[in-house]
Design goal:
- The complex is a heterodimer.
- In chain A, 59% of the residues lie in helices and 0% in strands.
- Chain A has 5 helices and no strands.
- Chain A has helices at residues 32-59, 70-76, 80-108, 112-139, 157-160.
- The radius of gyration of chain A is 27 Å and the shape is elongated.
- In chain B, the strands form 2 sheets. Chain B has a 5-stranded mixed beta sheet, with helices on one face. A two-stranded antiparallel sheet of chain B has the order 6-7.
- In chain B, a hairpin with a 2-residue loop joins strand 3 (82-85) and strand 4 (88-91).
- Chain B is elongated, with a radius of gyration of 22 Å.
- The relative contact order of chain B is 0.12.
- The chains are: A mainly alpha, B alpha+beta.
- The A-B interface holds A 12-13, 17-18, 21-25, 27-29, 31-34, 36-38, 106-108, 110 and B 125-126, 129-130, 132-133, 177-178, 181-182, 184, 211-212, 214-218, 220, 246, 249-250, 253.
Chain lengths: 162, 254
């Protein structure tokens, strides 16, 4: 009798699975992917409201597109509401877009080096735009003067009252 | 007296079933003879009751014995003969030739995203490995093992009825564009089979399965393209099942 003989069947979880079929990414217990997914779902509808209100207030209200000049933008950024509005719009749009483009890069790059190169370029561009944009919104000088010290023609009305 | 079954009319024209010629254009890969894949076409005489599988049989049995494909039951239950027919994933045994546009060749390819081994045969092991990882078996507390069957209300059974229909043919997973580019993605079939146990009120391993699918390569890879729902030969609402698993993970973690 050959009762000692081990019968080997490649049954599930028996440990006989060819290593090439084992998932390479070790399962991480972080919720990173979930929050990324959730962020896309939540920021999307918020951006719709932010962007279309922005477009409406810039291009439809008052003189419409004809009234759109330096003064209009400068006047808006004198108000904390529009500062925060544009700040939130900038951050949400940039993070939303970066995650989206990152997904497209994952889809269309097969080589690791290409993927890393594209991702680095993407993240650098995003960080630059977010930092510069934030800086502009908060350090913006609405009452700009020309070389002779006179206010620019299109300056918002409150500049002339000073 | 012996009883014999004689056809009442013996006209020999297969009744009134229409017949037509079909050109089958098949993606072939024969690693013993050639390194690259190539197309080969055959024109065969088929009947209105025939399926794509019957045309492949006719080629294999009468024209070219080297044509290789998987099939077992040939009646849409075993899930062996999933292939790409005219660009969409179908079971060859469930597609009637007369439902296709026969003015053009019927294009048959292996399912995408899994390594092709020969003609229509792909390495299914990555697919089954994902299936194993979601633990497709009842997990229950042994200390509370019942002495009789585990009863379940019809309503509780209805909750996961749709996902019990899966036959593991891989038509959904190999139709998923995310799986084509990211072979590590668990894929629709594994998530469907996890859904079948996660929403079963007799099962107690739901948390473990949700944890597995909260992975980088888990449900969050799904982009709701609906290719899987379209491809499923059993009519399972695959994308809906994936969305329900996403909701369950969210509800558990937030």
């Amino acid at each position: 009798m050959t009762t000692q003989q081990q019968i080997h069947i490649a049954a599930p979880r028996s440990g006989d699975i060819d290593p090439k079929y084992i998932r390479s990414s070790a399962s991480s217990s972080s919720n990173w992917e979930m929050f990324k997914w959730l962020f896309m779902r939540i920021s999307g509808p918020i951006l719709l409201v932010l962007i279309f209100t922005h477009l409406f207030s810039n291009m439809m209200v008052g003189d419409g597109v004809q009234g759109l000049n330096f003064g209009l933008v400068a006047g808006k950024w004198a108000s904390p509401l529009w500062q925060i509005w544009d700040l939130v719009m900038l951050w949400l749009a940039m993070i939303h877009g970066t995650i989206g483009v990152g997904t497209i890069i994952d889809d269309y790059t097969s080589k690791d080096r290409t993927r890393v190169a594209f991702k680095v370029a993407l993240y650098l561009a995003s960080i630059t735009i977010v930092v510069l944009g934030t800086l502009v919104i908060f350090t913006f000088e609405p009452c700009m003067t020309d070389a002779a010290g006179n206010l620019l023609d299109n300056s918002p009305s409150f500049c002339f009252n000073q | 007296m012996t009883t014999t079954l004689e056809p009442t009319t013996n006209s020999g024209d297969a009744g009134a079933v229409e017949s037509f010629t079909v050109t089958m254009q098949v993606r072939r890969y024969q690693p013993e003879f050639r390194e690259d894949a190539y197309w080969e076409s055959w024109t065969v005489e088929m009947y209105g009751t025939d399926r794509v599988l019957d045309a492949l049989h006719k080629i294999k049995w009468e024209l070219d014995g080297t044509l290789t494909f998987r099939r077992s039951c040939a009646h849409g239950i075993c899930g062996s003969d999933a292939m790409r027919i005219n660009g969409v994933n179908r079971l060859a045994c469930k597609v009637l030739l007369k439902d296709l546009d026969l003015s053009k060749p019927v294009v048959v390819e292996p399912i995408k995203g899994l390594p092709v081994e020969k003609d229509m045969i792909v390495d299914m092991e990555p697919f089954f490995q994902s299936y194993r990882e979601i633990m497709p078996f009842l997990i229950a507390d042994e200390s509370r093992e019942p002495t009789r069957e585990r009863l379940q209300s019809p309503e509780a059974r209805e909750r996961f009825d749709d996902t019990t229909k899966c036959i593991l043919c891989a038509a959904c997973t190999s139709s998923c564009p995310v799986f084509w580019t990211d072979g590590q993605y668990f894929g629709p079939a594994a998530i469907v089979n996890a859904h079948r146990f996660i929403f079963d009120d007799r099962d107690e391993g739901g948390d473990m399965r949700l944890e597995v699918l909260n992975d980088k390569e888990g449900v969050w890879r799904c982009r709701t393209t609906f290719n899987c729902t379209e491809a499923c030969p059993r009519g399972i609402q695959v994308t809906k099942a994936i969305a329900e698993v996403k909701q369950a993970i969210l509800a558990r973690n937030i």
